[in-house]
Specification:
236 residues; alpha/beta; Rossmann fold; six-stranded mixed sheet; four-stranded antiparallel sheet
C-alpha cells in the first residue's frame, strides 16, 4: 500500500520550472532513493513534500490524505519528518538538548524517554557525547545527531537530504548502516542522495531525476545496472 504519493507535481523558482510533472510513490516499509546530479531537483522534491517549498500544481497524498495545502507543522504532526541537508543543529546546545527538541510535537512528547533510549542504542557515541555542545562534534557525529533528532519526532516517513555530504567514506558506511537499521525496524525512508552507488544499492526502489524530470525508475539494483546510470553517475 502506498504511504506517499506525488501526482504531477510542478514547482517554479521564479520563472525556472524546477519540477516538471513529478509523479512517484513510496510504499509502507520501503526505502526509496531519489538520485541525480546537482540542480536536478532532488532537494526541491522533498522540500515540497514537507511544505517548505510550495507547488504550483499537482497533488501530494500521505496515507490517502492530501497534504499539499497543509502548514509545515501540520505535515510534521502526521509523521512526515525531514533531516535537512547541512544538519542545521543548534550549535551551542548540547547533543541531548538537540535530541530532546526533536520530540516537541504532541504525538512525540509522551514517548521522549523511550525514543531517547532508542537513539542512544542506535548511536552509542551520542550518549558518550550527550553533554557536549553540538558545534564540538565531528561531522559524522553531527550527522548522527541530526538523524537522531529526526527519530525523536517518531517519523512514519523519514526523509533524508544528502546524509553522506562532506563525510569520509568510512563514516558514510556507518551512517548508511544506521539508516538501513532504521528502515528494517519499520520506518519508511525517502532518501535524496548524490552518492548513487550506496543509495541505490541499499534501496528497494529508486527514481533518477534530470532537470526536474523523472527519467528512470526501478529497483535499486536494476538501476545500478542501467547503462545510463552507469555512464552518467558511476563513471563506468
Amino acid at each position: 500500500m502506498s504511504l506517499l504519493e506525488l501526482n504531477r507535481i510542478n514547482v517554479y523558482h521564479g520563472e525556472v520550472h524546477t519540477l516538471k510533472n513529478i509523479s512517484f510513490h513510496v510504499s509502507e516499509g520501503e526505502m526509496v532513493s531519489v538520485v541525480g546530479s546537482n540542480g536536478s531537483g532532488k532537494s526541491t522534491t522533498i522540500n515540497t513534500i514537507s511544505g517548505i517549498v510550495l507547488r504550483e500544481s499537482g497533488e501530494i497524498q500521505f496515507r490517502n490524505q492530501r497534504i499539499d495545502s497543509l502548514e509545515l507543522h501540520e505535515i510534521a504532526q502526521l509523521g512526515v519528518v525531514q533531516i535537512p541537508e547541512g544538519r542545521r543543529l543548534f550549535p551551542h546546545m548540547t547533543a541531548q538538548e538537540n535530541l530532546e527538541l526533536g520530540a516537541y510535537s504532541a504525538r512525540a512528547k509522551p514517548s521522549k524517554p523511550r525514543s531517547l533510549k532508542e537513539v542512544y542504542e542506535l548511536f552509542p557515541l551520542l550518549e558518550e557525547r550527550k553533554h557536549q555542545q553540538a558545534r564540538t562534534l565531528s561531522g559524522g557525529e553531527q550527522q548522527m545527531l541530526a538523524i537522531g533528532r529526526g527519530l525523536m519526532a517518531m517519523p512514519v516517513l523519514l526523509m533524508l537530504d544528502e546524509p553522506s555530504l562532506g563525510l569520509a567514506p568510512i563514516l558514510v558506511k556507518e551512517i548508511y548502516n544506521a539508516i538501513q537499521r532504521i528502515n528494517q525496524n519499520g520506518t519508511t525512508i525517502l532518501l535524496v542522495e548524490q552518492d548513487v552507488q550506496i543509495s541505490l544499492s541499499l534501496s528497494h526502489r529508486g527514481y533518477v531525476l534530470e532537470n526536474g524530470e523523472i527519467v528512470l525508475e526501478g529497483k535499486g539494483e536494476e538501476l545500478l545496472r542501467n547503462p545510463l546510470v552507469k555512464e552518467s553517475y558511476l563513471g563506468l
